[in-house]
Amino acid sequence: MTTWTIRLPILILAALCSAGAACAQDQYSAIRADIEREIAAGRATGVAVALTHKGKIVWQQGFGWADKERGRRVTPDTPFSLASVTKPFTTTALMVLVAAGEVALDARANDYLGAAKIRAGVGDADQVTVRALTSHSSGLPGTFQIFPAGGALKQPSMDEVIRTYGVLVSPPNERFSYSNVGMGIVAHIASRKSGLDYGVFLRQKVLEPLALEHSFFDTEVSRHDEMAKRYDRDGKAFPFYVTSTPGTGELYASAHDVARFAMFHLKDHLADQQQILSDAQIDELHRPVIRVREDRSHGVGWMLGRAFDATPVVYHTGNQAGVVNVMMLLPSRDIACVVLTNHEDSHDLVDRIRDAALRTLVPAWTWKSLAPSPAQPVPQTYRGTWRGKVRDGENELAVVLSIADRESSLQVGGQKPEPISQLSLVDGALMGTARGKLGFPTAIAAQAAGLSLRLQLRDTKLAGEIGTQIPIPRAAVPGYLPFFAELALSSPPSAASRPAPTASASPTPR
To answer: Hey, what domains does the chain have and what are their CATH numbers?
Structure first.
């Protein structure tokens, strides 16, 4: 046998192995092309992706710009604004305190607070546990406000946030209602119990032990030059900003680090990571606490769902001005996918990247995003004039809500009544929007305008919140300030507003 005869099978085998490696690498080519096409079209600025399987990062890559003005490109190590993907980091930090016996998930949240306490508009504030705060089942309202660098308004303390917005608008454990107030209090509790600034606590107890070197809280000002800027839909950078609830969304981390954090939660036990939590404590974070609807629930800082084959999905998204992100874990398959972007309104792209990346490992993968709850007509029992008050921490304004068949209106303080648009019941709550302003100091300072209702009929009263929107220049979604409101029916509907009886039992055409 000649030397060539011996070498030929070896060369063929080597060529096949090389082709196989190329094929494995090329399985991401369509995803790359999609991302690069969106960046070239100006519909994306920077994107970072990481995919893990069985304790290893099998693909990670950066695309586009972290800072267009300075020519700094995205890499897998570029720290992005995580927005609400911060929340699982916050509850992981909290669980470190739980593991140490410093905090109990089922203890009263107010036991860990100072002079500023959670108060009851409806329900019982003593029923608000730490677990309820972490799962958005506390009954506290949602809020979002940004404070751009150099702006006239300064970031409030969490005590100020609690005093102004820490009022229950529904009873604890009644329903899921996404609340940055509640999750902001979780980080506040961690800070109070540790005696450390929250960013320092997070770094010492989570980021450093898990060897997340390209992650930092935004109070680490010296590292701000590392972060990806946030861009609007026209590709213009937003000024750097912070929010009113730092622990809910002010972590910066790279796709590489978020993937490593995800592998910690998949119990992959990486050699260079300290086991800051036991497997049982990780399971506690992923255990359902409150049902959202359909096949979704919420655990301790994590959203929970079911995949196409009913296997569990543990995930969180992050969306705010100049940010759209997702971190998704498939525990039964030991898979995680991370997609981070720094461009306004990139939801469709993020969903496509996530699904395409997961299909490289799970070809049958599909995921259905939750649709908004359907709106229902307002029943006749709501018709009439309701009078009451809307309150912030110290002030109150008179409110008159008139509900009629043809046109309903809302009047706040001495302003004129304004017609309500889209008045309906959604998940049992009376919702609608109207023109007008709330004359509270925080709303005036934020130049908030426009009113929104979220009121629940409880016995003989309508109770819940009246909110107002804060303009965020160039952002797709405005900020929001919530205030507790309670109204009682002062007069039934007039005869003119009641529908006339009909002789036929069949539905009346409209």
So the answer is: 80-359 (3.40.710.10), 375-491 (2.40.128.30)
